[in-house]
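Project standup — Tuesday

K.O.: blocked on the structure for the chain from last sprint. Re-posting the sequence here as requested.
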Amino acid sequence: MTGINNSMEKVALVTGITGQDGSYLTELLLEKNYKVYGLTRRASDINTHRIDHLYDHKNLVLRYSDMTDSPNMIHILYEIKENNPNMDRLEIYNLAAMSHVKVSFSMPEYTGNADGLGVLRLLEAIRSSGMMEKTRFYQAATSELYGLVQEVPQRESTPFYPRSPYGVAKLYGYWITKNYRESYDMFATNGILFNHESPRRGPTFVTRKITKGLNDIVTGKTDRLTMGNLDAKRDWGHARDYVKGMWLMLQADTADDYVLSTNEFHSVREFIEKAFALRGFNIKWKGEGVDEIGYDESTGRELVFVDEKYFRPAEVEELLGDSTRARKELGWTPECSFDQLVQEMVDGDCPAC
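H.V.: unblocked you, prediction finished:
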């Protein structure tokens, strides 16, 4: 591992800074005394709630941008270059994406444009601005690359088989990052991250849907939680652990691609059972398929239902990572257990009475 020259200014650019990963990564970088430039899309509603507590930090600079806007990317890189003459190197973390797998089926062209070609635009902006030698680039790849899994567990050498427009777009991002590393000797790395959650996860993602739905049942706002595939299994970790892995990848002596995972997986069904148990429900199951119902054993209340509209056109049944290389070569280890993750998310969305 190499350190950063502390006599020089540490500068980072984070795309997708207002997302779950962007907010945790920005906290980490500011703690390490980086000057952080964050790119965010303009929206009619304020969408900075995940970084509001950092808004006035003297080392945080926010700029509007979009992964479909090449000139703007180049302009921002020139701004960073001109305003930071003592910059040792620039670390770029590309976390921006249309990141909802099911929505990508409804918006396939935009997903390909932002998640695939957007990576190319950013890599070309680095070259066009003359920043190649000073830049270390991180691309947020995804376990969705594995899709219809070819081996269990999935590691860096496992063949890819994406099963959604999101996964296919991310596959382009993965390979164009690797291509620029090999073609131009850029320090460019892919982090193949398995599912990572937190109380900051978007409310439409399955884990937050469960914990928010639990709160709605407890507070009487609704009498049920309606889900899709209960048997899908995911390797779930905490986003706070995973952003440390991103940072470690850009501190390495050479660029490479790494899997980050907890190396264990759990089903959506198990997440529901553990979450509901924390608020006094003992969920048991009856029926099959779309007719399956989860009920509270002590009261008989039917609480969890299945609706086929929440199934994907092409399902990814199970994802299980093997992060041995990252643990050995980067010294990375996840600290938050599955039970701790569920507890933190339930406490965030459904405070105990």
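K.O.: great, moving the ticket to review. The longest strand covers residues 87-94. Residues 1-5 have pLDDT under 50 and may be disordered.
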